[in-house]
Amino acid sequence: MNEFNALERKSGLLTMQGTQQATIHAAMFMQLLAAQQAGNEKLVSFYVERFPPDVRKAYDAWMAEKPFENPNADPHPFVPNLYEMRGSREAADASAKAADSQQKAGSAGSISGQYLANTVLFATVLFFASASAKFEQRRVRVVAFIFAVAVFVFALLRTAMLPR
Hints:
Elements: H1 2-38, H2 41-50, H3 53-64, H4 88-132, H5 138-161
Helix pairs in contact: 1-2, 1-4, 4-5
């Protein structure tokens, strides 16, 4: 479970960092569009030159679609086929590993619970085996002892079937 929690935190952090960077990139892109709309090519060039490589690649691919002339072009360069948010692959990998860890932890917890239940059954055996000698009637002593033996065999079989 500790591994699961660590991987979930890592995935969340990577996603948050990627989202923050994508927000900054989208803001830069919006400023670029505003400068382009105002006819300020110097400012447009300023923004384009300062785009990080992944954003620049997406922007160039988007511009190759001729978005101002082509109605079928993508609406912006931040669509999945052009732009991938930073850390998204690592976050997806961490989430997948976290799910695997959670499954393993659940399985281990289930086995642990079964061992604990068997311990309680063995304690029950001790109680009935010792209590059987304290009864005055022979029939009650025998029934209590047989019950203790039956529970012992049952617990022994359950323990033997558990993975090691």
